[in-house]
Every structure is written in structure tokens, then in C-alpha cells.
Amino acid sequence: MDLNHVSIFARVVELESFTGAANQLGLPKSSVSRTVSRLEEELGVRLLQRTTRKLHLTDAGHAYYDRARVALAALEEAATAATTLSTVPRGIVRVTAPNDLGVLNLADALLRFARKYPEVHVDLTLTSRFVDLVAEGFDLAVRAGKLTDSTLVARKIGSDMLGLFAAASYLKQHGKPKSFSELAQHRCVLFRGKNAKAEWRLAGPNGEESVTVRGPISVDEMAFAQQAVSKGMGIGLLPMAGVKLGLQRKEAPPLVRILPEYSTGGAGLYVVSPSVRFQSAAVTALREFIIEELLRVWNSL
Question: What is the spatial distance between Cα 77 and Cα 251, in angstroms, rounded to a whole number?
């Protein structure tokens, strides 16, 4: 059923005139009359008795108008609410981010956001798995790595480099490797290793080199890998930004950079959303807030 037909019928009833409704709606009188007739045909009942002097609602017309009026008012209220959400930040915003983002102090940022926008509720999901934003109903995501979905709207925060680090306690016990190939004889903390080993490919003085490393633990979160390295569990291939941030906050003993002439490009950090078109004010406010916060932290490293 066409809601425009219902709306035109209601306007005719309220003004008690086809002519008056036509003038108010900016439509030809004949179009208004045909619209009401089509509505009656769809319903299979007569809604209006037409005379040369006045319109009269039938019993069916009274019953239909009373309910239609309430429904149309509810739709207007819904439209107003939707418009308000697009201009005033309020409502629920669903966000997903990797667990590792904790090292960038997202909790502190969201606390400041909550104080600034008390009518916005942030539903944050921290997970290491890939999240389909559209299928799972998320408004925003913070992602590290290469973006493969070209339909997402992305803002790049920055790219990191990975270097080799170890705790002083580990180096005191096991010594410092003097060459890249010596890493194969050391205990290493493996990020997403397979079968208790991983292949590290880094650029060095002689171009790209690779080495197969092993160690006591494989993890799928870089923040945990950094903690394990700081505890002396082994040598780690870690993001330099994360190491600098830990040093600034004095969260763990300083890590020692080993073989500093070797490094590799790390993952990019992005804030992404399914679309910025017709985003609610709450989503827009949080998106810009997270971007500003992450850029502030990133640029301080």
C-alpha cells in the first residue's frame, strides 16, 4: 500500500475538501480524487460519500481514518527522531577494534568521549578476528593490517616499522646475537607462529634476508607478545611504535633493540566504516574523535 495515498486521504478528511487538499498539497484536484479512489479500490470499501456540497466519511472511512491518523503521526514522529539522530549525537554506536589497541590507550579516549557526549553509548567489541562490519552491524572499526575490502571508507592513521627487541634479562642470560642468522639459535616470541616456528623476513644491509625462528610461545596479539618479550621470554619482532609507547608510560622495563640495521614494514592503522553517507551524528562524532585521538598518540611517538 502506498503511504502517499493514505496521507492524501487523511488531508482530504481533515480539510473536508478535495479542492482544499489539492491546494495545500500543490496537486491537481483530479489527482487527489483519483488517489482516494485508488485507495478505496485497494481496500475494497468506500471511505467517502461524495456530494456536490460536502464530503461525508462512511463508517469504514471513520474507522480507517482514526487508525491511519495515529499511524501517520507515528511516522512523522519517527522521521523527526531520525532527523534528530542525524544532527544531535545520541544513541548506540557499535565499534570493533583489535585487542592490541589497548596499548594506544583507547579506554582513556572513550572516557573523554563519554564526558563530552553523555547521550551516546559506545558498544565496543575487542577481538583479534576479522569482523564483517555490514553483516554484523558495526558502525566503525579500528583495523591494523592491509585493507582488502574496497567498499569500506577508511582513514589511515599511520604505518609502523617492526624491529628486533629483547629484554636485558634475556640478553644477560643468553647473550646478544651478532648476526641475523644467529636468531635461529635463540628463543623467540612468535607472533602467529605455526607449528612452534615462524619465518622472519627483514630488510638489512645486504637486502632482504629470512630466518626460521623458534621459541616457547606463539601468540595472536602483538601487545601480549611485547609483554612476553619484556619478561625475558625471548627475542621479539615488535612494532617500534608500541615499544616507544611502553617506554613513555613506563609500563615495563625498557627493551633493548638488537641488530638495529634490520627492520621490516609493519601494518597500517586505519579507522574504517561501511559508509559516511547518512551516518548518524553519534557515529560521525565518535569516528572523528577516535581519528583525532589516534593521530595525537601516533604523532607523539
Answer: 51
User: How does strand 264-273 pair with strand 140-144?
Assistant: antiparallel
Residue 267 pLDDT grade (very low, low, confident, very high; cuts 50, 70, 90):
confident
Closest CA to 190 of 223, 227, 225, 241: 225
Nearest to 182 by CA among 166, 158, 160: 166
Angstrom distance (rounded) from CA 226 to CA 100: 10
Cell of residue 240, nine digits? 617500534
CB 176 within 8 A of CB 253: no
Q: Running DSSP on this structure, what letter comes out for residue 100?
A: G
Contact 64, 58 (CB under 8 A): no
pLDDT above 90 (res 100): no
Whether 113 contacts 122, CB under 8 Å: yes
Contact status, residue 133 vs residue 152, Cβ threshold 8 Å: yes
Per-residue pLDDT tens digits for 163-221: 999 999 999 999 999 999 999 999 999 998 899 999 999 999 999 999 999 999 999 88
pLDDT at 75: 77
**Amino acid, single-letter form, for residue 44:** G
Query: Which residue has 554506536 as its cell numbers?
Result: 93
Q: For 40-44, 55-59, 77-81, which range has the lowest pLDDT when averaged over its residues? A: 77-81
Q: Which of 77, 68, 66, 16 is nearest to 42 (CA)?
A: 68
